[in-house]
Specification:
8 strands, alpha+beta, single chain, eight-stranded antiparallel barrel
């Protein structure tokens, strides 16, 4: 009987270690916390970088799951009048087309390796009040996710971020 209990205890121990090891690679909401800088946002249609070469961007996630994200083209035009309320139609078109920002809460589903943006407000108003689910991977200091529909068209977009140091 002692051998049976010992064997059972050994099996339970090995099973517990196996489960713990498989969970070690799982990404959680804690893995998102911090500041990320944009590497690229590439659309599937044409393989172009959505915000052009040398685009800038930040994703900031706090420990409570609140986030803020912003993207901007590197070549945004200056507003000649130096007043954003009196920008020309051409300046406004370039600025709106070359930027995107939104904020809200972010939740992670470790079972299917997705996260969801619950968008409170966005510079693309069609996204305000929506929830958007994204498959993701985190490998070292790199976060990569895919959005099924890019805000500017062009199919899906794969966004890559690097953790800020």
């Amino acid at each position: 009987m002692k051998r049976g209990k010992l064997a059972l205890a050994l099996v339970e121990l090995l099973l517990g270690l196996t489960l713990a090891a498989s969970d070690a690679g799982a990404q959680t909401a804690k893995d998102f916390v911090g500041t990320w800088t944009l590497v690229s946002a590439v659309t599937t249609q044409g393989g172009i970088d959505t915000f052009g070469s040398n685009a800038k961007g930040s994703l900031i996630v706090d420990a409570n799951g609140r986030y803020m994200i912003a993207f901007a083209r590197a070549d945004l035009p200056k507003v000649v009048s130096n007043n954003r309320f009196t920008a020309t139609a051409e300046e406004n078109k370039a600025i709106v087309g070359g930027t995107l920002a939104h904020f809200g809460t972010l939740s992670v589903n470790t079972a299917d390796q997705t996260f969801t943006f619950k968008i409170e407000s966005a510079t693309f108003p069609n996204w305000t009040g929506t929830e958007q689910k994204r498959p993701f991977t985190i490998s070292g200091d790199e976060l990569r996710y895919t959005a099924a529909a890019a805000s500017g068209g062009g199919g899906s977009v794969t966004v890559t971020w690097k953790r800020a140091k």
